[in-house]
Amino acid sequence: MKNVTFYKFDIEPKKNLRLDQIISSHLPEYSRSTIKNWINAEKILVNGKTCSPKDKISIKSEIEIEVHPNEEINIIPEDIALNILHEDDDFIIVNKNSGMVTHTAVGNYSGTLQNALLFKYPELRNVPRAGIIHRLDKQTSGLLIIARSLQSHNNLTQQIQNKSITKKYLAITSGILKNISVIDEKIGRHKINRKKMAVTFSGKESVSRLKILRRFDKASLIEVELVTGRTHQIRVHLSFTGHPVLGDKLYGFRKSIFSKNTELVKFLDSYNGHALHAMSLEFKHPSTKEVFFIKSSPPDEFLEIQSLIEKHSYADTN
Asked: Which H helix or E strand runs over 171?
């Protein structure tokens, strides 16, 4: 069908959540009422069968969703500057600034990456999510892939589901990180604070690969490769080790660790971001099938934090 796309993904049993709640957690940019309408219109199938919004999932199930672009939330195009690093007929690579929300959703109807994309590329109205196939947290900077057609959208989405897109990040952590090369801890919704995720036995498989680039007196510069792509994954995993990302107050960062570094503390007082940057992407080009690789440098704020840590470090352990 023209201008129709299909999503397919597996979900684990969630006995305490209704089907519409589970799907909403996978597709946060769509309202719960939109998802209920899809279910009632039989556009969502569970294991090939129609379902009800209140159904519970008791076994691992395959979800299929049929999405028409004109059913997406009404996103108003806005003339917002974007840092475009690459574009061709199949996709665009955006280097997102820290502080910009990726998707338009409840509470974020303006100033998002979707608003900006629809202004610069009006044709993206015909692609689900304005072509955005993955997301970055508001305070995380870096590279995002934007599909320019339904064909490339389906191809790139499939690559994400197959874990064949390599995504690497730079992060500055609080404290000196030990020789940890892999964090393999399940992640799920926090039991009390619903805005947070947490390492939990009942969560989804979540794997991060770490490479320590430099150790400073009270911080570490690391590279992280995402094997899985869970919400807040890097932030949760690093917090779990006791070394949250600098600036990430939600997951336990405290600037008091740098109390003797007055320049850094002063900078952090006015800094509203995370020292986390999506620095590189590698995947197969949807048309040529050749390997496409792109890399970006971290923003000035990230480099300023690193510089101030280096300047005041007493023991830079490489």
From this structure: strand 166-174
268 with 67: CB under 8 angstroms? no
pTM: 0.79
137 included as an active-site residue: yes
Indicate if 166-312 has the same CATH topology as 5-71: no
| Record: fold of 84-161 | Pseudouridine synthase (3.30.2350)
Contacts 24+ apart (CB under 8 A), 67-71: 67/4, 67/5, 67/6, 67/7, 67/38, 67/43, 67/128, 68/3, 68/4, 69/3, 69/5, 69/125, 69/126, 69/127, 69/128, 70/3, 71/34, 71/38
Task: Record the tokens describing residue 179, joined without a space.
Answer: 């020789």
Q: Which one is catalytic: 55, 79, 89, 137?
A: 137
Position 105 pLDDT exceeds 80: no
Q: What is the pLDDT of residue 63?
A: 87
Q: What's the fold here for domain 166-312?
A: Pseudouridine synthase (3.30.2350)
Confidence of residue 4 (pLDDT cuts 50, 70, 90): low
Class of 5-71 in CATH: alpha beta
For residue 314, pLDDT over 70 is answered with: no
* Per-position DSSP letters for 243-275, written without gaps between them: -PBTT-GGGT--GGGGTT-HHHHHHHHT--S-S
- In this predicted model, what pLDDT tens digit does every residue of 250-271 receive, in sequence order? 999 999 999 999 999 999 999 9
